[in-house]
Write a structure and sequence with these properties.
- This protein is an alpha/beta fold and 297 residues long.
- The protein has a single domain, classed as Aldolase class I (TIM Barrel, Alpha-Beta Barrel), CATH 3.20.20.70.
- Helices cover 47% and strands 12% of the residues.
- It is built from 12 helices and 8 strands.
- It has an 8-stranded parallel beta barrel, surrounded by 6 helices.
- Helix 1 links the parallel strand 1 and strand 2.
- Helix 3 packs parallel to helix 4, helix 4 runs parallel beside helix 6 and helix 10 runs antiparallel to helix 12.
- It is globular.
Length: 297
């Protein structure tokens, strides 16, 4: 049997640039997408949490997709956030996205209504049975309020060939080991926490769906390559060098800190939509000190 779809090792969960009126700045969207594919990103995730999907309309999401597809061409894969806490809405959005020609979708565990494991199986089964697109499950209990069990992921991975991967944003190393033991060998596990990418690689994750790769994509890509080619000490040293910035970019709700860092790098403005607010000046100083220390080494 052929291997399942491979979305790449470094998937950047791309921010959505806004202008001062909090409208999407599509020129900056295009520029940032091109920058990412030149700097370590194998794929771009559109309209994920980092893209502020809770405050985007469906029409904005589809326009983002169109602009990014044109900007990137065949230089990187495009993954679209297509989750909802309503199964009917998730199914409809998935069908709509499939017509747009994306490479895969990311589908989050339903949030707020806290389904049971049986409810999660029914939810993702309904999505998988309605599309031929590769599906990456997204388990992030800190935002959804409920954890998807290893046994649930195993069941879905075994039943549906188009459920190809899971983004695991639940920083528990034993769970990663249990997933790797339980799920089919060709089922991909992604780290959903930048600072845990290297330790998770050691127990079988394929790569990372990353926020930090906006600015350190090449370094993360090189770290993964060095680990997979046996240069463990080089990979470890890069992890340790990156670690302070990987932690500091989550000092406030994502994507607020990474947008501040991107603005300082001259790539976008740091506008976010309410209820998110920009970093305070003291927070910016704290963040930029850590970035400057990384750049000096």
């Amino acid at each position: 049997m052929s291997k399942r779809y491979d979305a790449g090792e470094v998937v950047t969960a791309m921010v959505t640039p806004f202008n001062k009126n909090k409208e999407i700045d599509y020129k900056k969207v295009e520029e940032l997408a091109k920058y990412l594919v030149k700097n370590g990103s194998d794929a771009i995730l559109v309209a994920g949490t980092t893209g502020e999907c809770p405050t985007l309309t469906n029409e904005e999401e589809l326009e983002l997709l169109s602009v990014i597809k044109k900007a990137v061409g065949d230089k990187a894969k495009i993954i679209m956030g297509a989750g909802s806490n309503s199964t009917e809405t998730a199914v409809k959005m998935t069908k709509r996205i499939e017509k747009e020609g994306v490479d895969a979708i990311l589908s989050v565990v339903p949030y707020y209504n806290k389904p049971s494991q049986a409810g999660m199986i029914a939810h993702f089964s309904a999505i998988a049975e309605t599309t031929k697109l590769p599906i990456i499950l997204y388990n992030i209990p800190g935002r959804t309020g409920v954890n998807m069990d290893v046994s649930t992921i195993k069941f879905l991975a075994e039943k549906y060939r188009n459920i190809i991967a899971v983004k695991q944003s639940f920083p528990d190393m034993d769970t990663i080991s249990e997933l790797r033991l339980a799920c089919p060998e060709d089922f991909v596990i992604y780290s959903g926490d930048d600072s845990l990418t290297l330790p998770m690689l050691s127990i079988g994750v394929h790569g990372v769906i990353s926020v930090a790769s906006h600015l350190w994509g090449n370094e993360i890509k090189t770290m993964i390559h060095n680990f997979k080619t046996g240069n463990f000490n080089v990979a470890k040293n890069m992890h340790l060098k990156l670690y302070p910035v990987l932690k500091k970019i989550f000092m406030a709700p994502n994507p607020v800190p990474i947008k501040a860092a991107l603005e300082r790098a001259g790539l976008i403005s740091n506008y976010v939509r309410l209820p998110l607010v920009p970093l305070a000046e003291e927070q910016k100083r704290e963040l930029f000190e850590v970035i400057d220390a990384f750049n000096k080494d």
